[in-house]
Automatic annotation (TrEMBL):
It comes from Trichophyton rubrum (Athlete's foot fungus). PROSITE patterns: GST_NTER. It comes from the Eukaryota. Residues 107-198 form the GST N-terminal domain. It holds the Pfam family GST_C_7. This is GST N-terminal domain-containing protein.
Length: 368
């Protein structure tokens, strides 16, 4: 397999000037990178083809979802040389031009504004980072277990009593006929399946030596660290989840439940926590200030990672990675669930490090 750099489709009116010479070759596989172009099916003709027909093919190819640098697999068919070389374009991003389906939890309408679950936010940020086309399917909170079971995606976490913890996100990718959940597994899948798409590598090598040990048991089971893959990021994910989950009680009273399912959802959380009512989660007065101060100190330790490279708002300075998306997803939850005055207070902590991170990730925060 060799590169065929002459095919460049930077804009819909771009000219194509292939340099490949016509020679009697069997079906030869070629790779071409099309920056800023979609990976749709079609046919591009070489310079021996008429310019009008070539331009029409290009116009049909260009358009639709924007990709930064998808790699498209081509087949060059040259059984004979009769004055024209044709190249069949096979889409690499999706075998049938269908977008990925991303399953997120439906909150209070408008759902696009109020979506706040941190793990789905990790997946959304990763999908936007990789610039792959997707649509969101909103799932009522009481239906999550049924939907996940129906998609035949097994639960990967369990409650303390051994029962399965069914949660979102999940993605379905028609290009590979794959269904993947949870958020970390989705990020790994996107990186391995679309390594050169969007902003590039989600998992570049870096030292993520942040640890957090909770003082008490966390009610919601956390992800387990896998035995292979991007272990440094997996460990970081678990520690960040633990850090924010320990203080998540700050978010309960402003949580934007869908009114249609709010009472059922609250009853389930009450059952899991072993308390008598939803009001038992309320934090007021001195008790709230104590938990808030605990979060401030916890984020102070996390902020040290972002001080290593002050060239930008991310841990690696100007380069965003999945580690930044993990923290950013939790910040999205805090923005949606804290009282506005407390969110502004959080933004001011530690010289505004987390405000800068949150705002810098706006570029990947589109809700589709």
């Amino acid at each position: 397999m060799r590169e065929f750099p002459a095919l460049q489709c930077l804009q819909s009116n771009a000219e194509v000037h292939p340099t490949h010479t016509c020679a009697p070759v069997e079906d030869e596989r070629l790779v071409v990178t099309l920056p800023n172009s979609p990976a749709k099916g079609g046919r591009i003709y070489s310079s021996t083809a008429s310019s009008k027909r070539r331009d029409n093919r290009l116009k049909r190819l260009h358009g639709g979802p924007r990709y930064c640098s998808p790699v498209v697999i081509l087949h060059l068919h040259q059984a004979t040389c009769k004055g024209e070389t044709s190249i069949d374009l096979l889409p690499a991003m999706s075998s049938n031009s269908q977008p990925i389906v991303f399953y997120d939890i439906a909150m209070r309408p408008p759902v696009e504004k109020n979506c706040c679950s941190p793990n789905p936010w990790k997946a959304r940020l990763a999908l936007n980072f990789k610039a792959v086309p997707y649509t969101t399917k909103w799932v009522p909170l009481p239906d999550v277990a049924k939907v996940r079971s129906g998609l035949k995606v097994p639960a990967v976490r369990k409650f303390a009593d051994g029962s399965d913890f069914y949660t979102l996100p999940i993605i379905q990718d028609p290009a590979t006929n794959s269904a993947v959940g949870d958020s970390y597994d989705i990020a790994v899948y996107l990186q391995k399946t679309y390594p050169d798409s969007g902003a590039g590598d989600l998992f570049p090598d870096q030292k993520l030596d942040y640890t957090f040990t909770p003082d008490s048991e966390i009610a919601v089971p956390l992800s387990e660290v896998p035995q292979s893959g991007f272990i440094e990021y997996a460990k970081f994910n678990v520690n960040v989840d633990a850090a924010f989950s320990t203080h998540v009680q700050l978010s309960t009273q402003e949580f934007p439940f869908d009114p249609a399912t709010a009472e059922i959802s609250k009853a389930e959380f009450v059952r899991r926590a072993g308390v008598s009512s939803w009001d038992d989660f309320a934090l007021v007065g001195e008790a709230r200030e104590k938990v808030k101060e605990g979060l401030r100190k916890t984020l102070g330790e996390l902020a040290k990672l972002f001080l290593r490279d002050n060239s930008g708002p991310f841990i690696m300075g100007t380069r965003a990675t999945y580690a930044d998306l993990i923290v950013g997803a939790w910040l999205r939850m805090m923005r949606a669930t804290l009282p506005s005055s407390e969110w502004e207070e959080l933004r001011s902590w530690h010289d505004g490090i987390f405000a800068k991170l949150h705002d810098a990730l706006d570029v990947y925060a589109e809700v589709k």
